[in-house]
Structure formats: structure tokens, C-alpha cells
Design a protein that fits this description.
single chain, 263 residues, alpha+beta, 2 domains, five-stranded antiparallel beta sheet, two-stranded antiparallel ribbon, binds zinc ion, transmembrane helix, transmembrane, ECF transporter S component
Length: 263
């Protein structure tokens, strides 16, 4: 039976994985240490002066820095094994968090440290995220997004399950999201088209349904005269549900769709 949906191969290369981990570990520890120095883990005077807002801000930078480390880690080592990625992610997050405990002046668990633990755990979602990967060319897929504003047309075609080659028949209905939203909210279809830059074969689509509406007429923080035409009725979309995730297109349909959408 031919594969109709993407499944991660679970493969990984041990050497790049080891190198990436050895680079990510000191970086994660450094982030934790830097956060500790800024918020006074080693100095009670700084800790006392630090307001809650400052602490939350410092924490957000910590989370952002870890997210960046995790992103680079994944990009570099091409590990397609989610379990290993999450395992290493937990190890890195904990290392970053525990750094402050090793040098901490008075070891006393407070609520704020639990909040810190949650914040350093947030970037783990990056490790869980599935990134489509071309095993033949050893590279991640690129992607582009497009909308079908007439969802009725889409559903009329979408009767046969697990075959989305009909999308090629709808290229004339594919648009970028217009700047202005519709007077009445309506359902639209968002297609994320994934393709391998090198070989172009085995293209993948993620399809979601969205509600498309317009922003309210008056934004109280904007001066009406300036933005009269630009700020009114802007497109707003909110995700409703998943139609399909990771569905392969046939080779010919994929290539043609790539030619149309990407060039
Ligand atoms: Zn490829």
C-alpha cells in the first residue's frame, strides 16, 4: 500500500546529534546562569530589588533564548526522531533550570522557581513539532501558504479521501488573503504546501479551515484621520479545524502545483 501521509522516519545521525547536544548544553546552561545573575539568584540584594515585572521579562528572554537554541539544534542535526529530540530537550531545559540551584545562596524552593520551571519547559514544544523532511535529499521541506476563499468549491472536490491531487484543478481559486475582510464572516480554506527544494517530488499539504472576517471599524488607539482607509475592515482569520495533515500529493500534481505556487 502506498504511503498517503507523512510519517517521520525516526532516523538520525549520531555524530551531528552528539555535536549539536555538546553545543546546546553549555548554551542552555549559560542562559540559566545569565538569568540567575540578572535576577539575583546569587545576590539577595538584587533579588530583593527585582520587581515581578522585571522577573517575568527576564524569564521571557530565557524562554526565547532556549527556544532559539532548540530551533538551531533541530535545524543542524536533522534528527527525525521526536522521542530523542524531546529527551534531549528535557535534559537541556533541566540543565538550564538547575544551573541556578547549584550556585544558589539559600536553597529554598519558592513558587517563582516553579514558574521558572514551566517557562523553561515551554520550548519543548519545538522539539515535538514535526518538520517534513526529504530523506532522499537530506533536507527539510520548504513551504508556502495559500487560501481558497470559496470553501464550497473545495469541499465539492474533496470527496475522495486521502487524495488531494484535485488541488491542481483549483489553482485559479487560490489566493493570498485579501487585505480587506468580507462583510459577513465566512469559511475559507488554508493550504500549506510543502515541497523539497532539490528534488521537488513527494510534495505534502496541510489543510485547515478558517473563519475569515474583518476587524472592527474603530480602533480606539488609532487616529481616525490617519488610518481611515487602511485600518478599517482588515482581514482577520481564526482557525476552525484540520481538514488533513501531512497528506502526500501525487508526483505530477505536486510538481505542477509547485510550478504554480513557487515557480
Ligand atoms: Zn528531495
Amino acid at each position: 500500500m502506498p504511503k498517503t501521509h507523512y510519517h517521520s522516519s525516526g532516523k538520525y545521525a549520531p555524530i551531528p546529534l552528539t555535536i549539536a547536544t555538546l553545543l546546546a548544553l553549555p548554551a542552555s546552561i549559560w542562559c540559566g546562569n545569565f538569568y540567575g545573575a540578572q535576577t539575583g539568584s546569587y545576590n539577595p540584594t538584587i533579588a530583593a530589588e527585582m520587581g515581578l515585572f522585571g522577573r517575568i521579562l527576564a524569564m521571557s528572554f530565557w524562554t526565547a533564548a532556549l527556544s532559539l537554541i532548540f530551533y538551531l539544534f533541530k535545524r543542524y542535526n536533522h534528527n527525525r526522531n521526536a522521542r530523542i529530540n524531546v529527551g534531549i530537550g528535557v535534559f537541556l531545559s533541566l540543565s538550564s533550570w538547575l544551573t541556578n540551584w547549584i550556585f544558589y545562596c539559600n536553597m529554598e524552593m519558592k513558587g517563582i522557581h516553579l514558574v521558572e520551571l514551566v517557562m523553561v519547559a515551554l520550548p519543548l514544544s519545538i522539539m515535538l513539532m514535526m518538520n517534513y523532511y526529504c530523506e532522499k535529499c537530506r533536507q527539510y521541506y520548504s513551504s508556502t501558504s495559500i487560501f481558497i476563499l470559496d470553501s464550497g468549491k473545495f469541499y465539492k472536490h474533496a470527496r475522495k479521501p486521502a487524495d488531494y491531487d484535485f488541488l491542481l484543478d483549483l489553482v485559479m481559486d487560490m489566493n493570498q488573503l485579501p487585505e480587506k475582510g468580507p462583510a459577513q464572516p465566512k469559511e475559507i480554506i488554508k493550504i500549506i504546501f510543502y515541497y523539497c527544494d532539490s528534488c521537488g517530488s513527494r510534495a505534502i499539504v496541510d489543510i485547515d479551515s478558517y473563519t475569515w472576517s474583518q476587524s472592527s471599524k474603530h480602533s480606539y488607539w488609532k487616529k481616525e484621520s490617519y488610518y481611515h482607509h487602511r485600518s478599517h475592515h482588515k482581514s482577520v482569520i481564526s482557525r476552525q479545524g484540520t481538514v488533513v495533515q501531512g497528506a502526500y500529493l501525487g508526483d505530477e500534481a505536486g510538481r505542477n502545483l509547485k510550478a504554480y505556487l513557487v515557480g
